[in-house]
Design brief:
With 79 residues, this protein is mostly helical. The chain has a domain at 8-61: 434 Repressor (Amino-terminal Domain) (Orthogonal Bundle), CATH 1.10.260.40. It is 47% helix and 0% strand. It has helices spanning 8-17, 21-28, 32-39, 47-57. Helix 2 packs across helix 3 (32-39) and helix 2 (21-28) crosses helix 4. It is globular. The relative contact order is 0.23. GO terms for molecular function: DNA binding. This is HTH cro/C1-type domain-containing protein.
Length: 79
């Protein structure tokens, strides 16, 4: 079983939509492991990755507020 997202907004949207990490990955053209790592806070997403995941989940990336660790990489993160 895949781990649960650390971001409550992503978790709620993922559960509401009933979509798997693999399905999200397929729709955004990324690996399932990368999506899991982003959603669980293991790695920080680029703004485009986070926007793509939010789009698949049917939520606005600008309205998502996640607790630490931040789901978004800052420009100083070198991503």
């Amino acid at each position: 079983m895949a781990p649960n997202p650390q971001c409550a907004a992503l978790a709620a949207a993922k559960d509401k939509k009933g979509i798997s990490y693999a399905a999200i990955a397929s729709q955004i053209g990324d690996s399932e492991q990368r999506v899991i790592d982003i959603c669980t806070g293991k790695v920080k997403a680029t703004s485009s990755e986070f926007s793509a995941i939010a789009r698949v989940l049917g939520i606005s990336s600008s309205s998502v507020r996640c607790s630490s660790p931040s789901p978004l990489a800052s420009p100083s993160d070198g991503l």
